[in-house]
Amino acid sequence: MQQELCVKEQGLESTLREIEESSKNSSTGLTRLLLAQQKTISRYKDEAKNLTQAFQQKLSSLSCLLRQDTPLLLLMFRVSDLDRPLSITLRSELNRQKQRAQELEIQMEADHQKILEYERQVSEQQEKNTRLQRRLTQAEQRAASVSQQPSVISQRRKAASMMDLETLS
């Protein structure tokens, strides 16, 4: 009977050791899970804090812009963006800004082409103006010479008639 008791005691001690070891392993695992959960909660708190600050900044910028009577189209973020995660909002805003930059580049190139065309037209008009000015000057000179011709002719006629009178006398 003592032998049975010894065997049972050894079995119980071995079971107790196994249970203690299992308990220690479970405690270690639970401690690891608790630390991981605390880190995750800390990250979520930080992200919530950052999102709250970003939201407050957006609201304050919105209220400033609204006070300045700025059209809502000029706002950097749309109101619908406020319920989306910040990274998606920033990415979509970046895409909108890139698209706007491309549109502006296209518009700038078109305006540049228009400017070149206008400069060409101005140059042509200046050339035409110069030619017309030259023709006007020539016409004025011809008109002046033509207007002087009658007086020269009348002077010649006077001189000729004077001579005729002198010869007749």
From TrEMBL:
Q: What are its GO biological-process terms?
A: cilium assembly; clustering of voltage-gated sodium channels
* Compositional bias ranges of the Polar residues kind: 135-154
Q: Where is the composition biased (Basic and acidic residues)?
A: 121-130
Q: Which InterPro entries match?
A: SCLT1 (IPR038911)
- Region (Disordered), start-end ranges: 121-169
- Superkingdom assignment: Eukaryota
Can you quote a single GO CC term?
A: centriole
Q: What is this protein called?
A: Sodium channel and clathrin linker 1-like
From which organism does this entry originate? Sinocyclocheilus anshuiensis
- Supply the gene name: LOC107665924
